[in-house]
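Morning run. Coffee first, then this:
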Amino acid sequence: MVKVRTARAAEAGALTELVMRSKGHWGYDAGFLAACAPELLIRPGEVTARRIVVAENGRGEVLGVASLEGAPPLAALGLLFVEPSAIGQGVGRLLYRDVLRRAVELGVRRLVIDADPHAAGFYRAMGARATPGPADATARADATALVRFEAAPVALAGWARAWTGGGRAVHVGNVAEFNAQFADASLDRVQTAAHHYACLAAFYSPDPAALVLPRPVPKGWTELVGRQLGWSEVEVYDGLAEGDSGLCDAVRARPALAALLAGAGVPLVPWGRTRPFGRLAGRPWREGELRYESKSAAHALFGRILADGGHPGIVLPAQWPAPGRWTAARLLAARTRAGESTVLKSEHGVGGSGTTVVTPDRVRAAGGARAVLRRLPRGPLLVEEYVAGPAEGEGPRDLTYDGFVDDAGRVHEVGGAVMDVTDGCYRGATVGPGVVPAWAEKPLAAFGAAVGRELAESGYRGWFDVDFVADGAGRLAPTETNLRLTGPSVAFMVAARLDVLRGAGHLVRIADRVELGARLPEAQLDELCAGLARGCAELGGVFVPAIPTGAFEPEPWLGVLVAARDRDALDAAEALVRAAARAVGADFGTLTR
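And here it is:
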């Protein structure tokens, strides 16, 4: 295990020698190195003033050195050199992240890096931004060869600190368990999709201590995610409920494991609240606390909030309950005769399951309203007014607000996101600065906060979101609440973590399903993901595999996260990932198909 510690004045000579060996690794001639030597010299009396630290392995061998120089709000990464034999082993990454952490503690807002050109790729991959103009020619003997970068050190977002008390957490992937408590006809009875989605437990907070999962996951996956997100050691307890939706009860059936997790002194964070989770976590279960997971109950809640007239940017679509199919057919037929499109919803659903948009043409093509309804899952339906969206290219259609209610009943805003929704089905989301259009920011935040206050008053505690569709007049129509974690919440967690590790300003996109060209054994999946991580880093982005287990399905796929600091780099990273995924198997012949 390599750790960072403060350098000692007595080490100055040895550290200077390490710096010169590292500089010489790039093939510079003796004359050039001699010219660099005065500037790269570390004097004993400067070790403290330059805030020099070293990376040391378990045998006490120094593998790298870094310095944080200057005074807030502007500072410089004066040194970052790694012993040549340790290059490529993560030592530089460890030192760089330590510099950012210390910069935040000092109050540094801008960190300047004048990088050797051979190290430019490293700093780009670490999230530093190249800045225009040459490095200060008076500062270094080799200034003409340097590449200037900047980073913006930031602390963990306030909402993320409040979510888990600023520390690590145990993540419980009880997606199937959460879904099963609603017994909705539109939900997958086998819970195959839910068990895959449980892999998102890796991202229920920015820094997990342990993952608790129903199905086995590849070891290489957790190792790569840990490297990308700078985790310290994370315990993984998987394969606990492969053929069952009851993950928390499966944990409680292992008393030693249940005692270990509950007694770890860190919060237990589930996908969503359930009675079994309450028993595992020692948290009282409140009857009715999830009542606004119901789409009709949420609609009524929205109506009560809007009754005070305080949200002029919000419009509520009409909704009619249809307890029987005859009632639903009558309502649908009437709207079809009036030339109106209609949204048909089940009371509960996940990711768009149980939600169908029906146009008059579709009703006629199907042979009438009853024919349409015969193709839908059984059970009561909600018939809802369809909200026509903006013209193509004139702005996002589907948005969401994320927040949470803490145990004291305080509402915390996390932020807004733009969702990718196709034919009523959720496909992914993007979060980050500037993602939500300016016209939508205030009404989205104000209404989302109002919903949060109502949820808190009702006794709910935990994460929630409010989903919206945008209409053609620049207004937002709320469609449902989700009283659980979500795909966008995962993107928020990753953005918060990357901002700490790489500097502020990350855009993060989650794509639930990226099709693979072939099924992959674990070793090939690891190889693919490692290659995608390298490829995205070259674009200035970050690749994180989010759902690996879909790669082993007959029709294989991956859930992925990509991150970057601007939309062009984000789009390029996603395009790279999708193209590489489609190409999988092209060189394998028919053996993998």
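Residues 73 and 108 are 4 Å apart (CA to CA). Good start to the day.
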